[in-house]
């Protein structure tokens, strides 16, 4: 039997494990009880277990974290686990400023917010107070000072239609962008290219802003541009002229010889050609239905007519020879204050539209097919008189009067703004832009016999109903003498129908005898 010290030394040399610890407890119990057999069996079983046990696996070392760059903060070496609910809420919600009512503002008392944000709060309050005072003062002024409004033709000053703050050229250039912006350019093209035809009269032609859209093909037919100047020789005559004259003489001699030979030869008998060999005649294209046969434009301002002549030179074909580069109406006009071009088919007149208007330039028609006026009713003293003058020289039934005007809208707020700025606009441009065009047209319709409105529309929503397009015509109304004559004829026919059958039979037999 072993001693206690040797047994304890052997037990301490055994590997540490759970079963070894249990065995150690058993050995100590045996030592107290003196059971050596049990101690020897436990020692053998512990030794057998220690020899069969496998070595433990090596521990995995965490990967070495890379060294952070100078501009990046160092990351912790701990492995990143899934985000917690609190971290998700913090990452997903963007930080809110205190001015938008974030979480920080909710935690702060109102006194601290007012102390920290006093400047924006004061600015917002001051702005709201200024807007409120302006609105209240504007409403009070509008109620206490109503806008001035007069009936058409009863304004305190006579319109002239001429700008006082700009030259005509500057005024014309200023209109390019504004008319394109409000759709007026499209309306001008529509009127000149689709509604104008035949013999045309344009009242208040101004600078000729409609000339770009007329069809001048019939008016300029047969006109040729000037030939280029030929180089002359030293002796004052050109060799080309001599050659042309020689060619003309030789051609005339050949024609005379051919005519003499044809007179001597007998004529062959006429033979009928089959219809397949007959050459068709050249088809002449009919002119455009909206082409102009003659044009007459009138205005009361000579500086405006200077620009109109310049535009005619640029737009109408073959007008470079008849109109100089810098034309003036005073230099080109004749004694009756008119400039005639294109064989008297184009006339530019200085005249007042309130007097009887001129007739067409040709002698055949005594009235016009189309009368056009754009933005002219606001610039005359009596617009109803102007419409009656137009109705007097337009062809009945087939003729048309086309108006493009600006005036009062269908919205009361816009009309109030027009009325309040009417005096300032008149001082700048010489026209009353708050006239009611529909009232003017209906008054002329009642005053002029036979005049009727075919179309009255407010095109375009950009102008808010301030622009009006009107198309009118004059019905053929018979004169009172013709009415009396027609009534007598109808009465005589009725009397004949009420007579007996015997006189009618005699009259019919007499008529048959005369016919036989």
| DSSP E strands, number | 8
Major β-sheet strand ordering: 3-4-2-1-5-6-8-7
Report on the biggest sheet.
Answer: 8 strands, mixed
CATH topology of the domain at 168-221 and 287-474: Rossmann fold
Q: Which term fits the overall shape?
A: elongated
Low-confidence segments:
226-240, 270-283, 498-514
- Counting helices, strands and paired strands, the structural category is alpha/beta
Terminal Cα span: 184 Å
**Overall mean confidence score, pLDDT:** 75
**What is the CA-based Rg, rounded?**
54 Å
Proportion in helices: 40-55%
Instruction: Write the CATH architecture name of the domain at 168-221 and 287-474.
Output: 3-Layer(aba) Sandwich
The CATH first-level class of the domain at 168-221 and 287-474 comes to: Alpha Beta
Order of helices and strands: HHHHHHHHHEHEHHEEEHEHHHEEHH
Describe this structure in words.
This protein has helices at 4-13, 18-33, 36-52, 85-92, 103-107, 110-116, 118-144, 168-181, 184-195, 239-264, 302-315, 329-332, 383-392, 412-420, 422-429, 437-447, 480-498, 501-515, and strands at 198-203, 292-299, 338-341, 346-350, 370-374, 400-406, 451-457, 467-474. With 516 residues, it is an alpha/beta fold. An 8-stranded mixed β-sheet has the order 3-4-2-1-5-6-8-7, sandwiched between helices. Strand 5, helix 13 (383-392) and strand 6 (400-406) form a beta-alpha-beta unit. The longest helix is centred in the N-terminal third of the chain and has 27 residues, at 118-144.
């Amino acid at each position: 039997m072993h001693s206690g010290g040797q047994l304890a030394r052997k037990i301490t040399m055994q590997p540490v494990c759970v079963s070894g610890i249990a065995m150690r407890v058993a050995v100590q119990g045996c030592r107290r009880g003196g059971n050596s057999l049990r101690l020897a069996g436990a020692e053998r079983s512990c030794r057998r277990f220690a020899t069969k046990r496998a070595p433990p696996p090596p521990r995995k070392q965490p990967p070495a974290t890379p060294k952070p760059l100078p501009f990046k903060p160092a990351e912790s070496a701990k492995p990143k686990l899934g985000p917690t609910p609190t971290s998700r809420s913090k990452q997903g919600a963007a930080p809110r400023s205190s001015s938008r009512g974030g979480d920080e503002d909710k935690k702060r008392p109102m006194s601290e917010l007012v102390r920290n944000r006093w400047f924006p709060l004061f600015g917002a309050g001051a702005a709201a107070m200024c807007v409120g005072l302006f609105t209240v003062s504007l409403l009070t002024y509008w109620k206490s000072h109503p806008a001035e409004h007069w009936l058409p033709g009863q304004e305190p000053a006579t319109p002239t239609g001429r700008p006082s703050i700009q030259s005509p050229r500057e005024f014309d250039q200023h209109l390019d962008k504004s008319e394109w912006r409000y759709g007026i350019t499209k309306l001008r093209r529509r009127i000149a290219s689709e509604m104008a035809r035949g013999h045309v009269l344009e009242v208040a032609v101004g600078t000729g802003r409609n000339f770009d859209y007329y069809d001048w093909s019939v008016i300029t037919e047969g006109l040729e541009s000037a030939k280029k100047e030929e180089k002359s020789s030293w002796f004052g005559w050109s060799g080309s002229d001599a050659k042309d004259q020689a060619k003309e003489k030789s051609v005339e001699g050949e024609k005379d010889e051919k005519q003499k030979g044809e007179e001597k030869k007998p004529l062959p008998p006429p033979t009928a050609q089959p219809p397949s060999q007959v050459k068709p005649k050249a088809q002449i294209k009919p002119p455009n239905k909206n082409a102009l046969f003659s044009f007459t434009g009138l205005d009361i301002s000579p500086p405006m007519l200077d620009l109109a002549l310049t535009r005619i030179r640029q737009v109408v074909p073959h007008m470079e020879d008849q109109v100089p580069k810098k034309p003036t109406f005073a230099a080109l006009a004749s004694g009756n204050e008119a400039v005639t071009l294109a064989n008297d088919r184009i006339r530019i007149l200085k005249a007042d539209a309130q007097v009887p208007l001129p007739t067409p330039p040709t002698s055949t028609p005594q009235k016009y097919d189309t009368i056009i006026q754009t933005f002219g009713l606001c610039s005359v003293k009596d617009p109803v008189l102007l419409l009656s003058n137009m109705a007097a020289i337009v062809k009945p039934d087939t003729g048309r009067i086309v108006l493009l005007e600006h005036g009062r809208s269908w919205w009361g707020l816009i009309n109030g703004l027009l009325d309040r700025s009417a005096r300032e606009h008149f001082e700048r441009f010489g026209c009353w832009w708050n006239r009611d065009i529909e009232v003017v047209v209906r008054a002329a319709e009642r005053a002029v016999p036979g005049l009727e409105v075919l179309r009255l529309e407010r095109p375009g929503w950009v102008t808010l109903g301030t622009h009006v397009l009107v198309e009118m015509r004059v019905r053929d109304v018979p004169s009172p003498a013709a009415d009396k004559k027609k009534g007598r004829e109808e009465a005589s026919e009725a009397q004949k129908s009420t007579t007996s059958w015997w006189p009618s039979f005699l009259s019919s037999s007499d008529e048959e005898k005369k016919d036989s």
